[in-house]
Structures are given as structure tokens and as C-alpha cells.
Amino acid sequence: MKIRGGTTLYGHIIGIIVLDTCFPRLPGDIGNAGTWPFPVRYRVVPQASPERVVRQQAEGLLAPFLEAARELVADGVRAITTSCGFLGLYQHEIAAAVPVPVFTSSLLQLPLVARMLRPDQKVGVLTVDSRYLTEAHLRAVGAERVPLVIAGLETEKELTHVLIDNAPELDVQEAEAEMVHVARRMISDHPEVGAIVLECTNMPPYARAVQQATGLPVFDIVTLTHWVYRAFICPVYSPAV
Description:
The protein is built from nine helices and eight strands. With 241 residues, it is of the alpha/beta class. The chain folds into two domains: 14-105 and 225-232, 3-Layer(aba) Sandwich (Rossmann fold), CATH 3.40.50; 106-220, Rossmann fold, CATH 3.40.50.1860. The strands form two sheets. Strands 2-1-3-4 form a four-stranded parallel sheet, with helices on both faces. The protein has a four-stranded parallel sheet with strand order 6-5-7-8, with helices on both faces. Helix 7 runs parallel beside helix 8 (207-214). The chain is globular and about 60 Å long. The two termini are 29 Å apart.
């Protein structure tokens, strides 16, 4: 058997472009390597702050994100994601720049999740700040016609503040309580919501609490990344007995 080389490092299928942050990242967060049962490769984009990416629509950052994607490909990754759902705005540009699949945002799951639901149901989106999740973001991920209910945590005190202001300390219990509170409020106001997608890649640590509080399926960047990884590493099935 012969195998082909070409890179220095091996075994990392997924490459992750990461914002330049210092806030805590729990297991379940995309930027915590312990989240993944498989190796990943990270590339930080300097000066790509959460404030700049979320509230300034990543203005002026396309070039460094493209550079990071190309560097990850050179490192040998076979698919690329990012550490902010708002970077779905650059889905087409990054995907066009590299020869591997790119899934910039958990919001790419919206059309698929919507198809799973009854025609009278909608997909609920929990986002770090709903005021800045625009039609342009939805168009970029192919979700401009998906029936949605969008709820943001900008109404709360802890999680959005820590993430957007890049604060070095996080009250984990308060953050989880906020996630549950906003999710329950969304479901109470919109009982037609049949599933939830978490926009923010820092929200998966709280996905279980949201799922248990609402009784609904919850999709996030972790579910999407596992789906992509599974497409590259198929299991070996034993012959039927």
C-alpha cells in the first residue's frame, strides 16, 4: 500500500477560522478543542473582534479571512468553518477562494431544518444580537425564504456583553439562565416554532439546557461540524450476518 504526503501535519479534517478573542470558551464552544472527539486545526484572524464582526458586519476583514482559509488548506484540512455565525455573510466568498468545502455558519442549517417541520411551523433562531442579523446574512446562507422567528440575547445582561465586549470573565450559570429564558420566551410568544438553531458558536454549551427547557430539537455549529466530519470519515460497517 502506498500513501501520498504533501503537508507537514495530518489527521485534522476540520479547520476552524477563529476570531481574535479573550473571553472564556467552555467545552462545547467551537474554540475549545475539548469540544471535538477528533483533531481540528485552528487559525486566528488578528484584530477580528466580535464587535467588528457582529456589529460592523466584518467590514474590512474579508481579505484576512480568505488568507486564513488558504493557510488552513495548506495545513491539510479538508473542510473549513468559522467561530462566528455572522460570518455566514462571507459564505460565498470564502467557499469560492479554496478547494475544500466551507460552512461558515450554523445558519446554513436553516433551510434543512425548515424542511423537517410541518408547513405551519417555523424555525427559531437564537442569536447573540438580533439587531445585527440582517437579510444580507440570511441571503448569504440561503435562508431568506425560510419562515423564521429570531430572538436575540441583547435583551439580557451577561452572555452578549461578555461575547461582544470580549470580557475575560463569564458567569456560566447566568449565561445558561439567559439562554433558557430567551428560548422559553420565544416559544411562548411563537408556539409555531418547531425547532431551534443557535446562531452563535459560543452557545452550544447551553444547547442541552435549551433543549430540555423547550422540548424542541436544537441545532448548532457542533451538530453541523459533526455532520460534515462524518462525510469525510465514513464508518466501516461489518457484513450482515
